[in-house]
Amino acid sequence: MGGFLGFVWRQWTMKPKPLPSTLSLQGKTALITGANSGLGLEAARELISRRISRLILAVRDPSKGEAAKEDILSSSDASCTIEIWPLDHESYASIAAFGQRVRGLDRLDYALLNAGVKMMKYEKSVAGHEMNVQINHLGTSAVSLTILPCLRRTARKINAPTRLTVVSSEGHFWIPFKERHAPHILARMDEPSSFGWQQQRYYTTKLLNVLWTHELAARLRKEEVVVNSVNPGFCYSGLHRHSAGIIGVFLWLFAWTQREGGWCLADAVVGHEGEHGAYLSEQRMTTPSSFVLSKEGEAVQKKVWDETIAVLRDEGKGVDTDIV
Ligand SMILES: NC(=O)c1ccc[n+]([C@@H]2O[C@H](COP(=O)([O-])OP(=O)(O)OC[C@H]3O[C@@H](n4cnc5c(N)ncnc54)[C@H](OP(=O)(O)O)[C@@H]3O)[C@@H](O)[C@H]2O)c1
């Protein structure tokens, strides 16, 4: 895993598959963040095709969510209840309100934390963080904490584990992650001089997704909430809109369709029972980068966790950080 030739080989030879046609998700409830477009929308379509009963599309812009719902309904004869809930990773108030609403659900079987951005230029969020860090890491981590009580309650109610899946990327293998040497990693990542070249910062936040997911899994019992991260593969989507030049050639040569990426996400959400704290790629469990598995990676994972909790405690009013 991880090398360029391996990436090319997998993108060319592996063909992602839809969920088994015999699978029925009747009676289950799922939520997907960033569900109005790209891979999140396709994962939604796939869960609906397997008869999920209730699906929450968590979206930054509700009008885009309504358009996505229309699009799903026009391509399926679903009897699923589809709801559009607002969620903006740049706003802790939005995340806290979303979490509060999730607590009111009678059940939540699956959560796919998929929302993300790939910003190629340094930009600051409202809270003052570099934007990839804010949306991909801090936002996703905060959402994971706010939905945990409902996932746990559901697991007790149905006497079976519920699932939390975080979307990462194979790109987490490909970065120097020099920020790890700083006294405070997240503070260093907020400095423009640390931003790095091309997609480096985006990929670094995808590594943070893997580290956060690993640590969260270590703090939870797999009988309660199963937590994994997933690489959907390199796919056509709006994610690449800020990338210029060579990315177009890469997409043309190597990319899977959005549909195939959505299949990989849906597979990670409902498949691989028994895996916990795992990294899924190409629809199977595999190993994350050697850095993640190293002693140093383990120490950095705990440091990133502590720093993230401290940031959320400080800024994320309404986000419960004492939950794990
Ligand atoms: N496509 C690939 O090749 C690839 C490869 C590896 C990993 N991934 C990961 O897959 C996930 C989905 O990406 P995609 O390819 O489907 O791209 P996409 O079509 O751009 O979807 C990203 C989603 O995230 C949402 N989002 C962006 N900023 C947000 C915010 N502040 N708050 C809440 N939601 C926000 C977007 O909403 P708006 O429409 O409102 O912007 C959109 O729904 C991402 O986590 C990405 O890192 C993608």
UniProtKB/TrEMBL annotation:
InterPro entries: NAD(P)-bd_dom_sf, SDR_fam
Tree of life domain: Eukaryota
A molecular function GO annotation: oxidoreductase activity
Keyword rRNA processing: no
Entries under Gene3D superfamilies matching the protein: NAD(P)-binding Rossmann-like Domain
Record has Oxidoreductase as a keyword: yes
Pfam family for this entry, one: adh_short
Alphabetized UniProt keyword annotations: Oxidoreductase
Name this polypeptide is given: Putative 3-oxoacyl-reductase
Organism: Bimuria novae-zelandiae CBS 107.79
